[in-house]
Design goal:
Elements lengths: L4 E6 L3 H22 L7 H6 L10 H16 L7 E2 L2 E2 L2 H17 L5 E6 L2 E6 L8 E5 L7 E6 L5 E8 L8 E2 L4 E2 L4 E8 L2 H14 L1 H9 L5 E6 L4 E3 L9
Antiparallel strand pairs: 1-4, 2-3, 4-5, 5-8, 6-7, 8-11, 9-10, 11-12, 12-13
Helix pairs in contact: 1-4, 4-5, 5-6
């Protein structure tokens, strides 16, 4: 998927956790083989070219496409599983894959799991008694600095996802025009229980721009957002403060 994945696993029976960790890593590699749009031989690439039908693909393809369709519906079309007219569910694949990997390891008995995929993080359980998982949100206008620190205190599961231009340039597309999104934002960070959705909502809100993106994120249950503009303004949903610390 063109990025680095890291696992932080606490507790559990070592052999069982190691087996689950190996399975999770193998699962991420399989996701890349099946769903990567950067590989011409992947099933999703062959599906986009008409060489395969969804029924002929692995079950993961249908699952991801169904989730992407739901994200498109909830976002009013601001999230799209296509790119310049071609099938491309990239915007949901990484978050979904990272969340699945975290749940697999947690299911093996680990008391705390944090999986980071290119800066998007799924946290489950805790890293220790009385200690919450914490994630730093990079400041897109000040390299090396932090814009905020998200704490998972009080939550059994929490995810943090960021979309923006600082790392990859103008790669987010406005689904209405098929061109790079013209927006006043440089980054949107979303906090939600599941990384599958946090990843999608960050992308959609970025494409919307700060005013519409903030309004839309406020309308979603259990979702909070931090929006940073090119003019160095920071806009937050009302409940975000409860996750900072």
């Amino acid at each position: 998927m063109g990025t680095v994945f890291s696992f932080d696993v606490r507790g559990g029976e070592p052999a069982a956790v190691r087996t689950a960790l190996d399975e999770a890593v193998a699962g991420l590699r399989r996701v890349d083989e099946v769903l990567s749009t950067y590989r011409e031989d992947s099933q999703v690439s062959r599906l986009a070219c008409g060489e395969l039908t969804v029924a002929q693909c692995a079950p993961e393809v249908a699952e991801v496409l169904e989730l992407a369709a739901e994200a498109e519906r909830v976002s009013g079309g601001w999230f799209s599983p296509s790119y310049r007219g071609r099938l491309d569910p990239t915007g949901i694949v990484k978050g979904w894959a990272v969340e699945g990997a975290a749940r697999l390891v947690a299911g093996a008995g680990a008391s705390g799991v944090s999986v980071n995929g290119g800066g998007d993080v799924q946290m489950l359980g805790t890293p220790g008694a009385g200690r919450p998982w914490r994630v730093g949100v990079a400041d897109p206008l000040r390299p090396g600095g932090l814009a905020a620190v998200v704490s998972a205190a009080g939550a059994r599961e929490l995810a943090v996802a960021t979309s923006g231009t600082a790392e990859r340039g103008a790669h987010i597309v406005d689904p209405r025009t098929g061109r790079s999104a013209v927006t006043d934002l440089v980054a949107v960070t979303v906090v939600a229980p599941r990384l599958t959705w946090a990843d999608c909502w960050a992308t959609a809100a970025f494409a919307m721009g700060s005013r519409e993106g903030l309004r839309w994120l406020e309308s979603l249950d259990g979702v909070e957002g931090l929006l940073m503009t090119a003019g160095d303004e920071v806009r937050c949903t009302r409940g975000l403060a409860g996750w900072l610390g």
